[in-house]
Amino acid sequence: MSLEPPLPLYVDCDTGIDDALALAYLLASPEVEIVGIGTVSGNVSAARAARNTLDLLALAGTPRPVAVGAAHPLAGRFDGGAPHVHGDDGLGNHPLPGSDAEPVAGDAADLLIRCARAWPGRLRILAVGPLTNLAEALRREPELPALVSDVTIMGGAALVPGNISPVAEANIGNDPEAAALVLAADWPVTLVPLDVTLSNPLEESDRMRLLTSGRPVATALGGMLDHYFDFNATFYGDRRSALHDPLAAAIAVGAVVPAVAPRVEVIVDDTSGPGRGQTICDLRGRFLGHPDQPGAHVRVVLSLTEDFAPHLLDRLLAL
Ligand code: RIB
Ligand code: CA
Question: What does the alpha-carbon distance between residue 11 and residue 62 come to, in Å, rounded to a whole number?
Fold first, then answer.
């Protein structure tokens, strides 16, 4: 058992079924202590995401500060989310027991800046929704990159197609202007794109283990995953689901180690053409594990050393 104190972690999310899996995983992870959670419009509205997050934390018996963040992307308006993926409520139309927990005062960018100042140089950031709050925090506090340890982002598609356009992944494509600012900022970023999240699925047998575990959080997750499996089956061809956000969480925690993850230049297309939202990763000559690009600060995770689902299940079933 490690004697290291847990690392302070700020999570930015659009809770969402796989966001809920990521949050539960983090609550079960001794390596980190969640010190703040901000929500953003993506899968659902930022307000709904906060409600879902607060109710999940209450079910787990682990209250944490939750702040409602940006209602709309930097340019344009929130489009109503992804009920076909996450259900009308974001949780697969499988409501959690309601709680009377309320968000803290101030918005998500404000909470992120307060956390960064409280743990200077130590705070780790995990972003698993559109990057609007992080971009806003950078605007309000230009010293933010120097105040945090590192940033892990679930987002983008390096060598595979997008999931909301032929080239754009949802978290990047729902606010490309914010993503461009966040990926260009001078802090170490680990990008966990569709390349690796789609190739590490959860199976129906895994879902049944959660559902029948008798543990409140795992059982709730197993229930909400039913809806997510229906959607994911439309492209996998059978009932399983991608593990986007929990995989990014496990990489942020350090419990899952990437196999191939070169540091390369990454540019976000924020033009209005067909490439809008694409993460253009300069992987020339590097995708088989070749050395990093000198000066690049974005590590793009392309593969893992081991299957992720067994590790995820172990932690979720212990919560
Ligand atoms: O593209 C997958 C990502 O978009 C995940 O973070 C999911 O929760 C949605 O936000
Ligand atoms: Ca998400």
Answer: 15
State yes or no: is 290 an active-site residue. no
Rounded CA-CA distance 153/155 in Å is 6
Q: Is 16 in the pocket of ligand 1 (CB under 6 A)?
A: yes
User: Three-state SS for 204?
Assistant: helix
Residue 297's domain is classified under what CATH number?
3.90.245.10
Instruction: Kindly state whether residue 1 falls inside one of the protein's structural domains.
Output: no
Whether 16 maps to a domain, the answer reads yes
Instruction: Tell me if residue 120 falls in helix, strand or coil.
Output: coil
Return the DSSP state at 152.
E
Mean pLDDT to the nearest integer, 106-115: 98
- Strand ranges (E), 65-179: 66-68, 123-127, 148-154
Give, for ligand 1, the residue of 85, 244, 278 to mutate: max count of ligand atoms closer than 8 Å to Cβ: 244
Tokens of 222: 């197993």
Assess whether pLDDT exceeds 60 at residue 102. Answer: yes
What is the pLDDT, as a whole number, of residue 4? 76
Sign of CA dihedral 48, 53, 59, 62: negative
pLDDT at residue 221 tops 90: yes
Distance CA 127, CA 153 (A): 5
> Please, how many CA atoms are within 13 Å of residue 97, restricted to the half-sphere of its CB?
9
Ligand 1 pocket residue status of 42, Cβ below 6 Å: yes
Q: Is the pLDDT of residue 147 over 70?
A: yes
Show the DSSP H helices in 194-243 as ranges: 194-197, 204-211, 216-236
Residue in the structure block whose two tokens are 């059982």: 219
pLDDT over 60 (residue 184): yes
The total number of structural domains in the chain stands at 1
Provide mean pLDDT across the span 41-65: 98
Please, which residues have CB within 8 angstroms of residue 143's CB and are 6 or more apart in sequence? none
